Amino acid sequence: MSKIALVDDDRNILTSVSMTLEAEGFEVETYNDGQSALDAFNQKLPDMAVLDIKMPRMDGMDLLQRLRQKTTMPVIFLTSKDDEIDEVLGLRMGADDYVKKPFSQRLLVERIRALLRRQDAVSGDLGGEAEDAKLMVRGDLSMDPLRHAVNWKGKDVSLTVTEFLLLQALAQRPGFVKSRDQLMDVAYDDQVYVDDRTIDSHIKRLRKKMRAVDDEFSAIETLYGIGYRYNEE
């Protein structure tokens, strides 16, 4: 049973969504502000967190920033209906997905299940000895799906599940172009629609993390209007 942390200052959302998730077989912990959630996470992390952005004591952005200092746990943001800035900023800070308020609870359940499936696929729980579960080495890059581990030039790089899947998809076939649609298929479920901006934001954060260990990292190439390509160095 996966444990989901739901963090929102709207008690109606906490009550209704937690009831829905529990009916779907999840274990749910609820928090009405970011600080109380962080205090609990410092003791034990859930399997996934669903965070509102605007909250008292500590907002969702601050909470995500602190979480990303210690964990790659999947995170879904709940964003305001028309606040595109929050969506883009949240993705660039390391959120895996976002759902706009007001939202269908069925949609949120589908997003949660899709993200958990992606995490299982990365860790090899669904892959066993499949090709995607084997250690992959491409020049200075090595990726170990079973340990969710990435190493570049001897240095470890901590990636979220979405970032890991995107890098894995690009590096599997160096020199071949992956369109944004192809990358969406890799990182998201068929029932989940995301736009180009979402993939671009994940790629920007992925590059930023790689350049944090090697400021000359340039293996991921953008082909404007087409997609992305991994060039083995």
Give descriptors for this structure.
233 residues; alpha/beta; five-stranded parallel β-sheet; four-stranded antiparallel β-sheet; globular
Structure description:
The protein is an alpha/beta fold and 233 residues long. Helices cover 42% and strands 21% of the residues. The protein is built from eight helices and twelve strands. The protein has helices at residues 11-23, 34-43, 60-67, 84-93, 105-123, 161-171, 180-187, 196-213; strands at 3-7, 27-31, 48-52, 75-79, 97-100, 136-138, 141-144, 149-152, 155-157, 177-179, 220-223, 227-230. The strands form three sheets. A five-stranded parallel beta sheet has the order 2-1-3-4-5, sandwiched between helices. Strands 6-7-8-9 form a four-stranded antiparallel beta sheet, with helices on one face. Helix 1 links the parallel strand 1 and strand 2 (27-31). Helix 2 packs parallel to helix 3 and helix 4 (84-93) runs parallel beside helix 8 (196-213). The longest helix has 19 residues, at 105-123. The radius of gyration is 18 Å and the shape is globular. The termini are far apart. Mean pLDDT is 86; it is low at 125-130.
